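Task 17 of the worksheet. Students: predict the tertiary structure of the chain below and write it out as structure tokens. Keep your answer in the requested format; marks are given for formatting as well as content.
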Amino acid sequence: MNATREQTTWLRGAPFTCLQPRESGRPWRLILLGPPGVGKGTQARLLAEALGACVLSTGDIFRSQLRRSWDLAMVEIAKRLNRGQLLPDDYVLEMVRRRRACLPCRAGFLLDGFPRTLVQAVMLDALLRSEGIALDAVIRYELPESDLIGRMAGRRVCPQCRSVYHLATHRPRHEGTCDHCGEALVQLPDDSPHAIRARLGAYLEATSAVAEHYTRLNLVVRVSAEEQATEICAHTLEALRQRGLPATEGNAASAPITPPL
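Model answer:
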């Protein structure tokens, strides 16, 4: 496994440790923002390949926990996630605190799914300051509501391990079957157009303050998500180039930014 992709610490928390990541030039520290259905997960994977950074997804943590344990607390978390509800700040913040060793990783990071509220953003700012780390940018992906609804209506979920697929963009290896545990995939009731509109409204209401917070800090880079995934990634990388971001202190040699093939 590529050392920069090994994520034991992120998925399981302290005291579990990852393989030592390779030196890969400048460590990029980015946050990915955008509503459900905008394609943040796909962009995270593509950007990780281009920048050599680790994807730190809170959704991956939840799915990993559900595979290892299915107690009442995790059942409630799964229900909230299926309804598109945000988890309590205290729970999310403690989960990230236990994984703070991932933040100064020499591979850099792409945060996907965190922060989702202003409280979480302020806590992350404090964590990064305590580690002597500065964010490079906050990538805000944007897509019209009608397109978001179309994308989300094609989502399919594994009822056992909660892995997520899409009929158009992320199909399972075998039709209708989870790649991880073999369960039959289902469409959630909350993926109906009416439910999706309600979820999008709740998401935007909760996260608008996050976007405003980072806009005031001059960190937000807006990227349209209306094209193909590789083209969106290329536009993201070009936007980072245009910002003229300096190399991180202590790692003066910047890595070239090249879009994946």
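Marker's comment: The longest strand covers residues 137-142. The domain at 25-145+207-240 is CATH 3.40.50.300 (Rossmann fold).
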